[in-house]
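Could you please review the protein record set out just below?
***
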Amino acid sequence: MNNQFKYKDNGLSEEHIKQICRFSDRPYVKGEYQRMQGYIQFKIWHKRQMDKRDALIKLNCKKLII
């Protein structure tokens, strides 16, 4: 399993992020968008890691029963 999380920047400039916030009627806070994207990416990565671990455990339990 890959145990290293790596944040992948989506390449949006600060000006682009400001426009996204403006059109979605949300206040712009510098760095908030990147922080939330990093958190979301981490949660998705972590869920996948946990699913892989659970699948291996389940597979090993089935082998022990048989």
